[in-house]
């Protein structure tokens, strides 16, 4: 469980239940043991009326896990246990797909890489100047989509207070890839319908070499999971399922 929290940064009780136990009471019981041992922190957001409990690796937990990995001769991940950018959104996306596979049994999240690993993997394939939040492979109905996930923001940049650039600017590195892009789709989670419309308009004027599927955080929140028909593909009409965003025949 320490490794799970280290990998995902912060998880709430329901997410731990989905990923490990299949039982919320069992997840809460085991998490409570780790909290009392001091290797995990428990916290509740002040503005959350549901009082949902979240869990994060403590400093002592990170030290214990690091020692265990070194004793086993395994590499210690960079920034072990430190929450990354857009962690809540990415975890909801990931756990939602895992739960979808468990409940419906029609799809499978075959592969998953977090932000740093995804960026390194892309760089090894000749794609630089992009900062994906994750990479994954979703298989359903004999189709597979290899995707990189980007979480877009609106408003102003935190350092300089200037308006954020078009969401398409963050994807320009895919257009400059020297050896092609090793995915079948780029996915973008947009904070609003207006921001998504801006993305689609700019990509229509300057397309990427791979299909781009976009949706809003509101649509994702209302869907049973990211596998649902909530994705708009640039240059196409209507909404499609995740596996249909540039999906190809599964091996």
β-sheet strand percentage: 15-25%
Give the class from helix and strand content and strand pairing.
alpha+beta
User: End-to-end distance, in Å?
Assistant: 32 Å
Beta-strand segment tally: 11
| Number of helices, counting only DSSP H or I runs of 4 residues or more | 9
Order of helices and strands: HEHHEEHHEHEEHEHEHEEE
Question: Helix share of residues?
Answer: 25-40%
Main beta sheet: strand number and arrangement?
8 strands, mixed
Secondary-structure map:
Elements: H1 2-8, E1 10-12, H2 13-21, H3 24-37, E2 40-44, E3 53-57, H4 59-71, H5 87-104, E4 107-114, H6 115-124, E5 134-140, E6 143-151, H7 172-175, E7 185-190, H8 193-205, E8 212-216, H9 217-222, E9 231-233, E10 239-240, E11 248-249
Parallel strand pairs: 6-7, 7-8
Antiparallel strand pairs: 1-3, 2-3, 4-5, 5-6, 6-11, 8-9, 9-10
Helix pairs in contact: 2-3
């Amino acid at each position: 469980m320490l490794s799970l929290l280290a990998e995902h940064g912060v998880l709430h009780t329901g997410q731990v239940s989905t990923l490990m136990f299949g039982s919320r009471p069992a997840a809460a019981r085991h998490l409570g043991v780790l909290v009392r041992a001091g290797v995990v922190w428990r916290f509740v957001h002040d503005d959350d009326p549901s009082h949902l409990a979240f869990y994060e690796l403590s400093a002592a937990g990170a030290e214990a896990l690091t020692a265990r990995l070194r004793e086993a001769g395994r590499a210690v991940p960079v920034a072990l246990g430190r929450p990354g950018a857009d962690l809540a959104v990415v975890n909801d996306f990931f756990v939602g797909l895992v739960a979808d596979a468990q409940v419906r049994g029609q799809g499978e999240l075959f592969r998953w890489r977090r932000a740093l690993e995804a960026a390194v993997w892309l760089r090894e394939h000749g794609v630089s100047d992009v900062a994906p939040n994750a990479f994954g492979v979703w298989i359903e109905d004999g189709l597979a989509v290899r995707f990189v996930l980007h979480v877009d923001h609106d408003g102003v940049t935190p350092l300089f207070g200037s308006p954020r650039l078009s969401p398409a600017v963050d994807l320009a590195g895919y257009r400059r890839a020297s050896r092609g892009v090793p995915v079948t789709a780029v996915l973008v989670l947009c904070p609003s319908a207006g921001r998504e419309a801006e993305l689609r308009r700019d990509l229509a004027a300057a397309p990427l070499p791979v299909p781009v599927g976009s949706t809003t955080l509101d649509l994702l929140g209302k869907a049973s999971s990211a596998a649902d028909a909530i994705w708009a593909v640039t240059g196409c009409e209507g909404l499609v399922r995740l596996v249909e965003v540039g999906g190809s025949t599964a091996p």
